[in-house]
Amino acid sequence: MSGGFDVVVIGSGVGGGAVAHALAPTGARIAILERGARLPREDRNWDPEAVYADAVYKSDERWVDGTGRAFRPGQFYYVGGHSKVFGATMFRFRREDFSAMEHAGGLSPAWPIDYETLEPYYARAERLFGVHGEAGADPTEPPRSGPYPHPPLRHNPVIAEVAERLRAQGLRPFPMPTSVQDHDGGACVRCNTCDGFPCRLGAKGDAETRLIDPVLQRENVSLRTEAQVARLLADASGRRVVAAELADGTEVRGDLFVLAAGAVNSAAILLRSVHAKHPDGLANASGMVGRHYMNHNCTAVMAIRPLHANREAFQKTLALNDFYLDDGEGGPPLGNVQLLGKIMEPMLRSEIRAVPRWARAWLAAHSVDWYAMSEDLPHPDSRVTVRGDGTIVLDWRRTNVAAHATLVAKVRTLLRAAGFSIVLTRAFSKDTPSHQCGTVRFGHDPAEAPLDPFCKAHDLDNLYVVDASFFPSSAAVNPALTVAAQALRAGEHIAATRLH
Length: 500
Ligand SMILES: Cc1cc2nc3c(=O)[nH]c(=O)nc-3n(C[C@H](O)[C@H](O)[C@H](O)COP(=O)(O)OP(=O)(O)OC[C@H]3O[C@@H](n4cnc5c(N)ncnc54)[C@H](O)[C@@H]3O)c2cc1C
Hints:
Blueprint: E1 5-10, H1 14-23, E2 30-33, H2 48-53, E3 63-65, E4 70-71, E5 101-103, E6 106-108, H3 115-129, H4 157-167, E7 174-175, H5 207-215, E8 221-224, E9 229-234, E10 241-246, E11 251-259, H6 263-272, E12 297-304, E13 318-320, E14 336-339, H7 345-349, H8 357-366, E15 367-374, E16 383-386, E17 392-395, H9 401-417, E18 422-427, E19 463-465, H10 480-498
Parallel strand pairs: 1-2, 1-11, 2-8, 3-17, 11-19
Antiparallel strand pairs: 3-4, 5-6, 7-13, 9-10, 10-11, 12-15, 12-18, 13-14, 14-15, 16-17
Helix pairs in contact: 1-5, 1-10, 3-10
Bound molecules: flavin-adenine dinucleotide.
């Protein structure tokens, strides 16, 4: 696989899979280079001891934070990327997320495209991932061209009761859009290990099962695993990428390159790709590559009724956007609240070590588990850089933390009012870059954004970046569907303008 390809896609996650899906019907010879291997389907996929306590699927690599502390980031390198372990929550961003919006912590900037431009691709992405949901139920939902591909997931009895208790407080909970095959003929068994675990049955709509495997049915598309791209090589003019150089020193040549290695790794690959004409790395004349790193402000919330054991397994079916566009009292936006996958004792072990095991087990057996998420705003000093030895430095400057604290306080109050006398909260650590985005943002002005509105590098003729790097703002709902939608849009544009 070292001869010239028409297109070389780097990364087989949500962005890489979606762009390959859009490009494959052109018949172009497409090579997908993936750093990881296939994640095996095996019993321990669903074992919280293996997945959480032993972290068997997490990468072993070490990054360094802004203080120089080395840490093992929550990175998962497999065919399908982070979607192999994602929670399968598939929100569209709100129409308002595409415009500038004032938050307590500062301004969330406008995108160079509006919601209507992305709507057809959201619809396509929902079909590809087989998303379940109920159109019209979410009070902040943007206009849709059609219903969800599948009806909403049914609530288990505990969640149905919680929904009623929230409604009684005047809130508007709604069925969460989710890509699991819980429909006639679907393989989902509604287990307790959807969020943060790989699916042993392949019943989660992840990028491997829904994008990569289908495109590999075509003869013109090939996948090479364990092919870690170290940097990109450009020609003497500095306008064209000619090859991807792998960590083993070999090169894969091509006419067009699409980077989709995830927001941290794509920035790192560009920064490592120093060239006489690009002394600060490829696509980086603006100096913006690696800057504006965002990752949502997230808190896990365990709501406990001491006299009610929660024996239900699958609980990720409900969300709340009542505080998304404002705080419910006309103040600034706070964020989204959604159910988390079922928390189990091994998942608490590293978080609350001082608490005895039996107490952790009791907490997990009595909790309904939530996830509160607030927007992180772009800051130029929130940044990915690369040390001389190649080590990634991730200096995340959290923003908008006061808004998040207000959201968590509100969640605590409303869950108490819903009958949960104990509400425990724990912020997600800085070492968990699950919703990483923003490091190679798109925009009209080459001085401000490395990518144009179709995700082509302003500085190069044949380089696109289609993972979560392109986000100019992070919004406050889960990112994967937006990554997929824009990758489909960029892919369609590339097919029409470059491969005809
Ligand atoms: C535990 C967890 C739960 C999540 N839950 C949700 C959820 O419920 N809903 C949601 O919307 N989002 C969720 N996310 C986030 C979601 O998975 C990401 O937003 C999405 O996968 C981003 O797509 P991407 O294309 O940017 O990156 P990825 O999907 O991560 O793809 C990047 C790919 O590039 C590969 N790669 C990296 N470096 C190189 C290299 N040097 N050379 C070659 N290949 C490389 C990686 O192995 C990977 O396959 C979750 C993430 C995690 C970790």
